[in-house]
Design a protein that fits this description.
Shape: globular
Strand order of the largest sheet: 6-9-7-8-10
Distance between the termini: 80 Å
Structural class: alpha/beta
Order of helices and strands: EHEHEHEEHEEEHEHHHHEEHEEEEEEH
Number of strands: 17
Length: 350
Amino acid sequence: MNIVIMAGGRGTRFWPSSTESKPKQFLPLLTERTMLQDTYDRFRKWLPSSSIYVATSKSYVQLVMEQLPELPMEHIIIEPDSRDTGPSTALTALTFLHQHDDDVLVMVPSDQYISDAKELKRALQAAASEAKTRRITVMLGIVPNRPETGYGYIRTHEGQDDHPLREVDAFIEKPNQDYAEKLMMLDGTYWNSGIFVWRPSTIEYLMTRHCPSIWQPLKKHYPEITNIYSQLPKLSIDYAVIEKAKDLYVIPATFDWDDVGTWNAVRRHYGADEHDNLLKGHVRSLASHGNIVFTDKQAIIIGVDDLIVVSTEEGLLVCHRSEEQRIKEMLNERSIEFKPYQLREVKPNP
């Protein structure tokens, strides 16, 4: 079994703490270690370093080397450009196939909270034992503990009690509140953890069948892919192949899990004050409730509720907690510029 930690994302929802030059996986959001280091440490508890790889953009190779100094350079799979998880997954599969290594790959995000490394090991070993002998894709499914609207869900057939696999029926992407409450009550419904267990040859089969626009150029030009990589479709692995594929299965996992993708997610891992505010830095609050404030400056909040306020050298974010998904939307607008606004003199009415 080989572990590939996917660490090429930009982490835009954590702006301005997370920036394009140093995104969230390289930040210490939940512990004194960074998200990438926590993920690596989780696997090093039961796997040798020779079985762990990191896939990342060339822009972040130096950060990976600094944060994981024991990781051999040849264990860093380098994307010439950031093109989402579809091209990254294809490049990873090609890397192993060119080394004549078709052992099971476990592909995991670098920015998740997982409470129990032993239970993670159990679930992955169960998944790997199924994926190593068959051309199937196995995902870890998380039993929902709240009606979360920011996650994807998986509906499954209920399998035999003595067999861990559940066959996938359907994917449900970010349901509304009412639907999420209904899904939470249904047997055979799981959060999609984004953790995939499969062989490189299985990825090749799925890519060839469902997304040749990514696979064929990569295969043709590998390993000289620098010039063509930026021209590949920018697709997640879910859209590229998973939602079109057959032979998809889920193994339920019982550990506590969180996709640490937003400021509200960070809030779940820290204690709020008596007014339900999560405050970090030199902050004073008055008549304010339910706020998240991370600041590198002295700050005062008065009479405001349910805001996210983040101040760093990079910039200032002020956002209602219910609107934080739109941070990524705004930063993904390539045309956005931070232009200075000037006060315009208005003559008072006589």
